[in-house]
Design brief:
Blueprint lengths: L3 E4 L4 H12 L4 E5 L2 H8 L5 E5 L5 H8 L4 E4 L10 H15 L4 E6 L23 H18 L4 E6 L2 E3 L9 H9 L3 E4 L8 E3 L3 H9 L8 E3 L8 H11 L6 E4 L1 H8 L3 H6 L4 H4 L7 H7 L7 H20 L9
Helix pairs in contact: 1-7, 3-4, 4-5, 8-13
Protein name: NAD-dependent epimerase/dehydratase family protein
InterPro entries: Epimerase_deHydtase (IPR001509), NAD(P)-bd_dom_sf (IPR036291), NAD(P)-dependent_oxidoreduct (IPR051783)
Organism: Corallococcus sicarius
Length: about 325
């Protein structure tokens, strides 16, 4: 059976792709910086091969890619280090090509599209990023697409909107889930009544595995839209309704982000991306559905239910840790 390597396997998207491969009975390699973290997440799965890498070391990247047919690239960087995206992609591509990897699937974002020119954005929309982060993501994509065009390796890109669900602590909605369970006010970044879309994180893995197995997918990029157009306010109302409380929220605007950014690097970096809340990029994924057929999308109410259940389970586990017994 072919070897699939998940670079950046410790993130929530990587975990979702791993679950999809597990459901298909397929073996896979998980690649991350920390063996301890990989063991915690994947050590119990006999189909998982655990490999560490140092993304700064080309030799280490080659070892991680050795014997691999398909490489799924989900490597994240700190929000204030986006200049690393094209650098890491270049090193990974060089290593993958040298090791004879056949295919690379890059998990991308809406950032390279820039300001939307149409209500719904298809893959034909110009890639004209209006932010530094968008330019770095576009440069990352261009490296893969150029390698595909040159015949060095096959490459494809799956664009995701904002996502939410179990484990997505960087989601716009994560703090609203926690606040609802604690009976507190949900901190949101406004405006909260503009159209927006979110994809449930557990829906992504099956799409990635279907895309990587489809020969026609390569040489271009594909949109995966959310489960429908909604607003932050509507989703927060649903979150609070499911915990039996009236919705309470506080909204931060761009000015507050700038102020918080004086002390928090992540908030500082959100300022340039604020346009996504005032000029939302709503994607059209009819091309992807034409390629793969029906794409399952968990309705928002069900995704919220599952996320709340996971947070309750996590809270209970912290309150009642399993005792560790010494081995005689």
């Amino acid at each position: 059976m072919e070897t699939v390597a998940l670079f950046g396997a410790s993130g929530v998207i990587g975990q979702g792709v791993a679950r999809a491969l597990q459901a298909q009975g397929r073996g896979y390699r998980v690649v991350g910086r920390s063996m301890k973290g990989l063991q915690q997440q994947y050590g119990a799965d006999p189909r998982a091969e655990l490999v560490t890498w140092n993304p700064e070391d080309p030799a280490s990247i080659r070892v991680a890619a050795r014997g691999v047919k398909t490489l799924v690239y989900m490597v994240g960087v700190d929000y204030w280090k986006f200049h690393l995206h094209p650098q890491l992609m270049r090193r990974t591509l060089d290593a993958a090509i040298a090791e004879g990897v056949e295919r690379v699937v890059l998990i991308g974002t809406v950032y390279p599209y820039g300001l939307p020119r149409t209500e719904r954005v298809t893959e034909a929309h110009p890639r004209e990023p209006n932010t530094y982060k968008g330019r770095m993501r576009k440069e990352q994509e261009d490296l893969l697409l150029a390698a595909d065009a040159a015949g060095s390796i096959r490459g494809t890109i799956l664009r995701l909107p904002d996502f939410y669900g179990p484990g997505t602590e960087r989601s716009f909605l994560y703090r609203a889930f926690v606040a609802a369970l604690e009976g507190k006010r949900a901190p949101l970044i406004g405006p909260v009544d503009m159209p927006h879309e979110f994809v449930f994180v557990n829906d992504v893995g099956p799409v990635v595995t279907a895309l990587m197995d489809e020969p026609r997918a390569y040489g271009r990029f594909w949109n995966l839209a959310g489960a429908g157009v909604t607003t932050q306010r509507e989703l927060v109302k649903e979150i609070y309704a499911q915990v039996g409380r009236p919705a309470k929220m506080m909204t931060m605007g761009k000015g507050m982000l700038r102020l918080l950014g004086l002390f928090q690097p992540f908030m500082r970096e959100l300022v340039e991306m604020h346009y996504l809340l005032t000029n939302p990029v709503l994607m059209d994924d009819s091309a992807l559905r034409g390629l793969l057929g029906p794409v399952h999308k968990t309705p928002y109410a069900e995704g919220i239910r599952q996320t709340l259940a996971a947070l309750r389970e996590q809270k209970q586990a912290r309150a009642n840790p399993v005792p560790v017994t010494a081995t005689p």
